[in-house]
Specification:
The protein contains no helices and eleven strands. By secondary structure, it is an all-beta fold. The N and C termini lie far apart (40 Å).
Length: 124
């Protein structure tokens, strides 16, 4: 069982930056690949980024590539999402998810555990 708690969301102007954090419970965090997903009002939840269990590999949605960076600190049981050059279309609830495997994955069905989400709002 893994429990995930996101933090770091908020209101930011377009062009600004935010860093999201996701703290995980449990002693097996380093065996899970982690992902970030987001859901805007009226839209389905979509993939943002994923990092392998070791932190050595990352995968990004085309819409955030070059602007967002996913990373993890296994000693702190925490995964991060650094978001730069934010755009109004990045406005969404951002969810952290854990996948019981070493490798990254796009699809939400590959992730077993989810956080409650944190709101990110980007004003124009």
């Amino acid at each position: 069982q893994v429990q995930l708690v996101e933090s770091g969301g908020g209101l930011v102007q377009a062009g600004g930056s935010l860093r999201l954090s996701c703290a995980a419970s449990g002693r097996t965090f380093s065996s899970y690949a982690m992902g970030w997903f987001r859901q805007a009002p009226g839209k389905e939840r979509g993939f943002v980024a994923s990092v392998s269990s070791s932190g050595g590999n990352a995968l990004y949605a085309d819409s955030v590539k070059g602007r967002f960076t996913i990373s993890r600190d296994n000693a702190k049981n925490t995964v991060y999402l650094q978001m730069n050059s934010l755009k109004p279309e990045d406005t969404a609830v951002y969810y952290c998810a854990a996948r019981p495997a070493a490798t990254t994955a796009w699809g939400s069905s590959y992730y077993n555990y989810w956080g409650q989400g944190t709101q990110v709002t980007v004003s124009s």
